[in-house]
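Aim 2 progress update. The chain analyzed this quarter is reproduced below.
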Amino acid sequence: MTLEYLEEIGDLTELDRVWQLFCNEMASYGFDRLIYGYNRFGTQKYVGPWQDALILSNLDRAFLKVFVEEEYYLHAPLAEWALNNTGARSWSYLARDFEKLTDKQREVVRHNMANGLTAGYSVSFATPSPRSRAALAMAARSGLSQDDVNAVWERHGRKINVIANMTHLKIISLPHVNERSKLSRRQQEVLDWVADGKTYQDIATILGVSVATVEKHLRLVREKLDVETTPQAVLKASFWNQMFVVRG
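Predicted structure tokens:
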């Protein structure tokens, strides 16, 4: 089954389809609610702002609004653990070490449990850069205890870990963007020419527009990507695999 999954996911080129396939696969092991986060703009002590992260989840939007936009994730025990560790971790520690958590961490755990996230496993992925952070939280379906989940992991954990890691690598190879930072075709085209080493005058000549129009496109690009300079825009767009993308 693992080989068939990897073959299928290897052929996909759309992020939504990769995520849906992964959710379906994890549900077959009893993990029916997932949240995945990847950020190239963290530090050694900070997982990074959610606005710059790729966040994928099949959890309720109301839960995600609190967990992500109100930045509960910054105080989740998983976030602190993922800063310094890679690999898989059972949620058994939440009950065992609850009193050792900070007040804010306990608040986050209570919020999660109130939303039915009571048993599960987490995975922190190895990344090539000290600024990159990637982690996955997998909550077990209703009715499964943490002991049940630990038993599932004992039987299938190695396979699940391989599937999760290969899916993570697939995800970060694909273009990803949220609506706030989505570039138009022309904005992407102008930025591609900048990355190719063309001057503003070169780009204006190639596209048959004025230099002022090129400057306007790049100003909008910088605003969308929340950066101060065009080189920073090229870097961020490159990190998000938005450079030289062929659109259908």
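The beta strands are 31-39, 54-57, 87-90, 120-124, 133-140. The chain has eleven helices and five strands. These observations will guide the mutagenesis experiments scheduled for the next reporting period.
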